[in-house]
């Protein structure tokens, strides 16, 4: 058995900044090519983590903006990389990156909104692209895009809320579709979609809060569903849902902080799903986002609803739809 | 998120090993990128033929999450291959698509794109064999009793089977018993408890009161067994709570006020409330005041909850009763 990984009790900001900067230089790795369809999302994970660490300048701003714009199609939707097909799942990170870089005027918002609206179904749900997959994830994405662009009136919010409520379960959680089992990532999307829609009264906060706080395991980490392993990305899905329904104090923040920090790669930077595993930008982002929500010293605050830096949401003039930061505001 | 970022151990490496790996990868990268660019060229030239379909197969075997390649695959089938075929030949091609799925599922059982493709194939088949799908999903859940995609697909298959039947009692009973089996195999199979909560209402629907009571008693026995075996497990507790119904806490109206010369009326409660129906408001003549209610998210943390009602009566000075 290998030796125990080295431990630290602090966030290695410099290492993580370097790690994120290095991502675009790994063309010798097959993995770089196999994950091409995730590149635009990767930019969002990277930029957001950097901004939270107060290092947004570590990536070249103009280049990033140009790249994002090049992923857009005539239809208004964005592909996962230049030349990849448009999908709503790639359209949100495009908007998020541009908002964070204060460059929303680089794209035609009308086109984006039209694309999103075209994906709404009769019953209020959204499909991911023309091929018809339906999922509560896409409701959140649609609402989030339209809210960031201040165009919520262009989609049928009321019907969308009605459909999301159909996905609610007896445990207070939400699934991917009506009848689907509760899952932390789906709960994140539904709770925060309802927050954006001003419909949080559909959430039974105490019941859901209980389910969510039971996700914390003895080692401090959170899992996504009962009887599953802990995983850094759930630090975000679970914690932000708790923040939005104002039940974040139902879990142990010190132990969760410890767990996230223990999943850092102390040699090459980055954060992995669990201590000792290979790091990736997805878990690096969600680990740092979780720490930001936990008010980790030196990080900027994050908005649990939009999963974006709070100062970006504030400067867009959007209301804080959660009660989290008001309670523990410590300044950026 | 793709599953390949989960559970991959970091292995110690040195310069020499890294160099050797790089050389090996360089070959693979070239092969892969050649495949991708050839495939893109063919699709752009609208060569929607079997040879292009095979290119997509080669790529998807290396990378089943590449959604654009799946889209190409469907375009090739729809635009190039199906138009030249009769129904039977089309069915055969789609059957091969289902077999291709079975090959890939061994590489990555959690790819959304793959499952979407299977659903799409069945949706364009003239005679989809849902019983075959039912058997397949049973086998998958035998291998992994918590597989999210597996359960999700099971619901999809069952919904299609239900649609074909006039009497859905048989399939509902079958599904209910299926959850019993899964729960008895493991009391902490949360997916099975969840599914049970969705099937139970349709089982009870046409029952007499006595029959319902009998089912209820059996449910309580099952829960009791589960709680004795796995007392720390949340599954059975939540199911129990749902079955007996949560006792709502007593919520009171703290006050209500209307804003003069506007259409707004505010009602404040001492705890969180969800509305089961409209708030009943009467004016001084005991007439019902109609309007729609909106939840007012508090601007700061507060134990009070207020609802706003926008009514259609322009001004009334006194309201009599809010209930
Ligand atoms: Zn994860």
From TrEMBL, chain A:
Q: Which InterPro entries match?
A: PGGT1B-like (IPR045089), Prenyltrans (IPR001330), Ptb1 (IPR026873), Terpenoid_cyclase/PrenylTrfase (IPR008930)
Kindly list the cofactors needed: Zn(2+)
Annotated Prenyltransferase alpha-alpha toroid domain ranges read 11-308
Work out whether the entry's keyword set contains S-adenosyl-L-methionine.
no
> Which domain of life does the UniProt lineage start with?
Eukaryota
Q: Which UniProt keywords are present, listed alphabetically?
A: Metal-binding, Prenyltransferase, Repeat, Transferase, Zinc
Q: Which GO terms describe its molecular function?
A: metal ion binding; Rab geranylgeranyltransferase activity
- Return the GO cellular component terms, semicolon-separated: Rab-protein geranylgeranyltransferase complex
In the Enzyme Commission scheme, what number(s) does this protein have? 2.5.1.60
Cofactor binding mode and count: Binds 1 zinc ion per subunit.
Does the keyword section mention Oxidoreductase?
Answer: no
Q: Which reaction does it catalyse?
A: geranylgeranyl diphosphate + L-cysteinyl-[protein] = S-geranylgeranyl-L-cysteinyl-[protein] + diphosphate
Q: Which family does it belong to?
A: Belongs to the protein prenyltransferase subunit beta family.
Function of the protein = Catalyzes the transfer of a geranylgeranyl moiety from geranylgeranyl diphosphate to both cysteines of proteins with the C-terminal sequence -XXCC, -XCXC and -CCXX.
- Matching PANTHER family: GERANYLGERANYL TRANSFERASE TYPE BETA SUBUNIT, GERANYLGERANYL TRANSFERASE TYPE-2 SUBUNIT BETA
Protein name per its UniProtKB record = Geranylgeranyl transferase type-2 subunit beta
Automatic annotation (TrEMBL), chain B:
Cellular component GO terms held in the UniProt record: Rab-protein geranylgeranyltransferase complex
Against PROSITE patterns, the record matches this protein to: PFTA
For this UniProt record, the keywords arranged alphabetically read as follows: Prenyltransferase, Repeat, Transferase
Q: Which GO terms describe its biological process?
A: prenylation
GO molecular function per UniProt: Rab geranylgeranyltransferase activity
Write out the catalysed reaction. geranylgeranyl diphosphate + L-cysteinyl-[protein] = S-geranylgeranyl-L-cysteinyl-[protein] + diphosphate
The protein's matches in Gene3D superfamilies, at most eight in alphabetical order, are given as: Protein prenylyltransferase
Check the record and name the Pfam families matching this protein: PPTA
Enzyme Commission (EC) number: 2.5.1.60
Family membership: Belongs to the protein prenyltransferase subunit alpha family.
What is the recorded function of this protein according to its Swiss-Prot or TrEMBL entry? Answer: Catalyzes the transfer of a geranyl-geranyl moiety from geranyl-geranyl pyrophosphate to cysteines occuring in specific C-terminal amino acid sequences.
What protein name does the entry list? Geranylgeranyl transferase type-2 subunit alpha
Q: Which organism is it from?
A: Umbelopsis ramanniana AG
């Amino acid at each position: 058995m290998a030796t125990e990984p080295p431990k630290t009790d602090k966030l290695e900001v410099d290492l993580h900044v370097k790690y994120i900067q290095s991502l675009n230089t790994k063309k010798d790795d097959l993995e770089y090519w196999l994950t091409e369809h995730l590149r635009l999302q990767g930019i969002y994970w990277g930029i957001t983590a950097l901004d939270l660490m107060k290092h947004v300048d570590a990536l070249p701003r103009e280049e990033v903006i140009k790249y994002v714009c090049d992923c857009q199609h005539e239809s208004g939707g964005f592909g996962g990389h230049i030349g990849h097909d448009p999908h709503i799942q790639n359209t949100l990170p495009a908007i998020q990156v541009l908002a964070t870089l204060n460059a929303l005027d680089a794209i035609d918002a009308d086109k984006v909104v039209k694309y999103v609206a075209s994906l709404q179904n009769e019953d209020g749900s959204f499909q991911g692209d023309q091929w018809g997959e339906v999922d509560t994830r896409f409701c959140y994405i649609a609402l989030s895009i339209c809210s960031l662009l201040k165009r919520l009136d262009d989609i049928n919010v009321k019907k969308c809320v009605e459909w999301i409520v159909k996905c609610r379960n007896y445990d207070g959680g939400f699934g991917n579709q009506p009848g689907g089992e509760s899952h932390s990532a789906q709960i994140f999307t539904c709770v925060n979609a309802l927050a954006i829609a001003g419909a949080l009264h559909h959430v039974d906060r105490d019941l859901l809060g209980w389910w969510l706080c039971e996700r914390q395991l003895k080692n401090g980490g959170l899992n996504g569903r009962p009887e599953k392993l802990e995983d850094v990305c759930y630090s975000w899905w679970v914690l932000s849902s708790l923040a939005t329904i104002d039940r974040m104090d139902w879990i142990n923040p010190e132990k969760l902080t410890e767990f996230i920090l223990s999943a850092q790669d102390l040699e090459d930077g980055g954060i992995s799903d669990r201590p000792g595993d290979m790091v990736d930008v997805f878990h690096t982002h969600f680990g740092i986002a979780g720490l930001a929500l936990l008010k980790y010293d030196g990080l900027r605050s994050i908005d649990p609803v939009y999963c974006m830096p709070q100062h970006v949401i504030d400067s867009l003039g959007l209301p804080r739809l959660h009660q989290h930061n008001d309670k523990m505001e410590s300044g950026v | 998120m793709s599953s390949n970022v989960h559970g991959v151990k970091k292995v110690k490496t040195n310069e020499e090993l890294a160099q050797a790996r790089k050389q090996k990868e360089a070959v693979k990268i070239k092969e892969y990128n050649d495949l991708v660019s050839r495939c893109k060229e063919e699709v752009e030239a609208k060569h929607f033929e079997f040879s292009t379909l095979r290119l997509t197969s080669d790529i998807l075997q290396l990378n089943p999450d590449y959604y654009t390649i799946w889209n190409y695959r469907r375009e090739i089938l729809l635009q190039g291959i199906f138009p030249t075929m009769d129904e039977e030949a089309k069915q055969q091609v789609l059957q091969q698509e289902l077999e291709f799925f079975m090959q890939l599922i061994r590489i990555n059982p959690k790819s959304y794109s793959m499952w979407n493709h299977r659903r799409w194939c069945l949706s364009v088949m003239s005679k989809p064999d849902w019983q075959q799908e039912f058997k397949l999903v049973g086998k998958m859940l035998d291998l992994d009793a918590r597989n999210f995609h597996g359960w999700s697909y099971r619901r999809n298959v069952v919904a299609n089977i239900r649609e074909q039947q006039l009497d859905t009692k048989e399939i509902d009973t079958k599904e209910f018993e299926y959850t019993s089996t899964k729960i008895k195999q493991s009391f902490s199979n949360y997916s099975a408890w969840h599914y049970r909560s969705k099937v139970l209402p349709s089982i009870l629907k046409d029952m007499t009161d006595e029959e319902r009571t009998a089912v209820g008693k059996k449910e309580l026995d099952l829960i009791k067994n589960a709680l004795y075996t796995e007392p720390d497990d949340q599954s059975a507790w939540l199911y129990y709570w749902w079955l007996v119904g949560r006792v709502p806490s007593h919520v009171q109206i703290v006050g209500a006020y209307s804003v003069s010369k506007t259409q707004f009326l505010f009602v404040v409660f001492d705890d969180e409330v969800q509305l089961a129906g409209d708030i009943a408001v009467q004016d001084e003549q005991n007439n019902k005041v109609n309007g729609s209610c909106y939840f007012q998210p508090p601007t700061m943390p507060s134990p009070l909850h207020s609802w706003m009602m926008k009514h259609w009566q322009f001004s009334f000075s006194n309201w009599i009763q809010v209930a």
